[in-house]
Specification:
The strands form two sheets. The chain has a four-stranded antiparallel sheet, with no helix packed on it. It has a two-stranded antiparallel ribbon with strand order 2-4. The chain is 0% helix and 52% strand. The protein has one domain (8-60). By secondary structure, it is mostly beta strands.
Length: 64
């Protein structure tokens, strides 16, 4: 992605949370922001889709 790139990114919460707000946003300079509310789950799994690729990330949630 380039600095001038405004690709659409779609986020899917596969496990452990709920997406708050729109599921598709325009990336600016390759950056897209989403808000995810997590539950009592120990892990959250996210999948991001763009015109160029699909990426899946699974993260362990740590309580402080």
């Amino acid at each position: 992605m380039c600095v001038g790139d405004v690709s659409k990114i779609r986020l899917e919460v596969c496990n452990g949370g709920t997406l708050i707000g729109p599921s598709t946003v325009a990336a600016e300079a390759g950056i897209a922001s989403f808000l995810v509310r997590t539950s009592q789950a120990k892990q959250v799994q996210l999948k991001a889709h763009s015109d160029f690729a699909v990426a899946t990330e699974q993260s362990e949630l740590v309580q402080k």
